[in-house]
Amino acid sequence: MRYAYLVVEGPHDVEFVGRLLKPYQFTRIRLESRLDPYWTPVVPTKFPFGGDLSQRVPVPTFFSSVDVSVAVNAAGGDSRIAPQVEETLAVLSTRPQAIGALLDADSQNSPAQRFNTVRAELNRLGLPFPAQAGQVSAATPQCGIFVLPDNQTAGTLEDLLLECARLSYPGLLTSAQALVGSVRPDDSAFTAEDMKDFRKPAGSEKATVACIAGILKPGKAVQVSIQDNRWLDEQTMNSLPRIKAVQRFLADLLSLP
């Protein structure tokens, strides 16, 4: 069995990775009894974690195929990616054969700047991350960083999901865009706090994805819709270049065919 550890920014990214791995016959490991013992040290055994009753227990999501076992951890932001990797490597008995990271390019910094910052932090851990985003090192462990949506353009995972929606849910996308486009953040009905997240660079894109997910999975989180609905299916994975690029990165990182 080969082991791989992947750190992403949030729960939406976890489900995105899970769907891209599905064609390679990966399944989600839900029961502790079925978890490979290699990963036992990264599963918290105490609640509340850190004494905070409101904090979600930070357990990775595990996916496994016949010969590859992957742990995907949501770090909660790019500033936590390197610390998360360091903390995980400190408790594992041996290093996994592959270590990777996915992050968004949604800040004022360029995708290259975000990549260089995270890469420098990870390289200080003695990991051989390559000098270019989207590449995978040939050393052991194999390492790589992908900056969503395409290593070059400012944006987020939501940009990729909206590309998928244009194929899978075109009518629903049009309706969601019309609703989000009709919102006027300066309307007196809103407070500054109400519109704080909507005004962010990716606010309208995130709102559009949330509208579509809210129709497909009423009352459930966006990550549930990514997992269950047709955002990422055979059509979108085979015909959208930017989706194929992320999937190819994962395949190279995990040494998949």
Question: Can you put this structure into words, describing what you see?
Answer:
- It is a single chain.
- This protein folds into two domains: 2-154 and 237-253, Rossmann fold (3-Layer(aba) Sandwich), CATH 3.40.50; 157-235, no CATH class.
- Helices cover 39% and strands 14% of the residues.
- The protein has nine helices and six strands.
- It has a six-stranded mixed β-sheet with strand order 2-3-4-1-5-6, with helices on both faces.
- The radius of gyration is 19 Å and the shape is globular.
- The mean pLDDT is 95.
As residue ranges, the low-confidence spans are none
Rg computed from alpha carbons, rounded to a whole number of angstroms: 19 Å
Number of helices: 9
Order of helices and strands: EHEEEHEHEHHHHHH
Given the C-alpha coordinates, what overall shape results? globular
Reading off the top of the CATH hierarchy, the class of the largest domain is best stated as Alpha Beta
CATH topology of the largest domain: Rossmann fold
Q: What share of the residues lie within helices?
A: 25-40%
Overall strand count: 6
Question: For the report, how would you describe the main beta sheet?
Answer: 6 strands, mixed
Mean pLDDT: 95
Task: Sum this structure up briefly.
With 257 residues, the chain is an alpha/beta fold. The protein is 39% helix and 14% strand. The chain folds into 2 domains: 2-154 and 237-253, Rossmann fold (3-Layer(aba) Sandwich), CATH 3.40.50; 157-235, no CATH class.
